[in-house]
Amino acid sequence: MDFTGRDVITIKELSKKDINSILTAAEKLVPYARGDKYTDLLKGKIMASLFFEPSTRTRLSFDAAMNRLSGRIIGFSDPGGTSLKKGETLADTIRMADAYSDIIVIRHPLEGSARLAAEFADSPIINAGDGAGQHPTQCLLDLFTIKTEKKKLEGNNVVLLGDLKYGRTVHSLAYALSLYGCQLTFVSPKELKMPKEVIEECRSFGIEPTNTTNLEKAIKDADVLYTTRIQKERFPDPEEYQKVVGSYTVDKALLKNAKKDMIIMHPLPRVTEIHPEVDYTPQAIYFKQAFNGVPVRMALLSMALGGKL
Ligand code: NCD
Predict the structure, then answer these.
(1) Which of 128, 190, 209, 233 has the most other CB atoms within 10 Å of its CB?
(2) CATH top-level class for 11-134+293-304?
């Protein structure tokens, strides 16, 4: 399959075949991601990393991925130091990054920003999160994690918990899990329910998600519990945030209701939604999940830049 030059704006643009190829490539790249093996697959290539919003894992794992492939990185993590301060448009900033690099990774607070960037760049654009919209590379690493931990993607029983309204990771993941025929349960405070459009997308694959506020009951038969942070920065009204903050916490007492081999995922950062006592249980795989960002992003960068894997 030739993936050279492709933009990755939403997970919906990737077919099952595309996703499977990326996951297979990522599996092969794990020893390179760990630094146990060396490759210069992307020597001479430059990745522009444009982060208009805070990030730890996404930005660092993209940087690590490009470094592990012997490519180079330019960019910024604080737009305050760029010409945006002088009033430059996003389109012009993108034109410049396009001129200076071979591939552009962008995170921006506005939904649709990555799509706009793709209109102004010839190089591939990778969406590293556009507001409350989509987060396709997180979705790929989430799929990779489920596939490696549960030995298959198809047919898992997955609970998505937390801020399903503003959380971009769960918007991408609900779609992708439906594509693989997973059973879905959405657990959230009633103010933060999964948007109707996302539920419609699940239905288009014949999946009818269950919506509930009852976490204890929802996790009883779950294979995967995917927890998310309440997206404080996306609330138009701080009082609305105060109403829902701390609505749920995953702790050891709650896990008594779950299957022994249920895995607990979280895109991170967590605030209060997973108690630190859970970190030492075998079910907690969120730090491993964060590492998986490296081989998955290595696979994507190599494939979009035409590197022979
Ligand atoms: C997520 C994001 O930025 O959408 N984090 C990440 O990319 N690992 C989730 C979040 O910020 O809560």
Answers:
(1) 128
(2) alpha beta
